[in-house]
Amino acid sequence: MNIHSLVVAKSETQPRIEDKREAIMQAALELFAEQGFYGTAVPEIAERAKVAAGTIYRHFESKEALVNALYARYKAQLGACLISEFPFSLPPRQQFHHFFAKALEFARKEPLAFKFLEGHHHGAYLDDASKALEERVLQPAYAFFEQTARLKITKHAPAEALGALIWGSIVGVVRATWEKRLKLDSKVEAVVEEAIWDAVRRHD
Question: Which of 25, 146, 176, 190 lies at a C-alpha separation of 20 to 30 Å from 95?
């Protein structure tokens, strides 16, 4: 066997560095979503990722660095999903429909990421970069409510309060579907969307 054959054979039998990093991140995502940050130990992540515990520290300085890497990845993906093809030229009610539909779309396509983000967005272990990213993702929603309040379409209340009301409602609905307490078909989805919008719009 020549040198080329040895190199090829080795590359085919050993995972690439990129694959190991992704395996670690996927394992951490699953465990953090299932057990939370504090309930998950690094050896558990290593076992699920099928790597040595020391390998994790070659890719991430600490468990905190790992959770922040995951948070940055999926918070950015969520933010991109929410504003993807956003109908800026349409009336606010249609814009809200887009936001609602995109939030549910992300929850369906990335259920582990959605659960992970909801369980970790107030964690004391989040670094300044993660907190800044959270604020950037929230800014479009805040701007929406500030504008619609000026137009007397939504209630005169802090944008942060209205945003929390809407997002909390969406999270509650998603959680109910996960727990099999709610079957979210198109008709139920439309009723839920209208109910959430009704909670923030002005009625005078």
Answer: 176
Q: Tens of pLDDT along 116-166? A: 999 998 889 999 999 999 999 999 999 999 999 999 999 999 999 999 999
**Residue in 68, 163, 61, 185 with CA at minimum distance from that of residue 116:** 68
Residue type, 41: A
Q: What is the largest CA-CA distance in the chain?
A: 83
Q: Which two tokens stand for residue 133?
A: 């990213």
Give the integer Cα–Cα distance in Å for 53 and 68: 18
Q: Rounded distance, CA 64 to CA 198, Å?
A: 40
| 179 burial via Cβ count (<10 Å: 0-12, 13-18, 19+) | exposed
How far is 161 from 132, CA to CA, in rounded Å? 19
Global pTM value:
0.86
Which helix (DSSP H) or strand (DSSP E) does residue 30 occupy?
A: helix 17-35
CA 20 to CA 51: how far, in whole Å? 7
Backbone φ and ψ for 154, nearest 5 degrees, come out as -110, 165
Domains of the chain: 13-60 (1.10.10.60), 68-200 (1.10.357.10)
Tens digits of per-residue pLDDT, 113-122? 999 999 998 8
Q: How far apart are the first and last CA of the chain?
A: 83
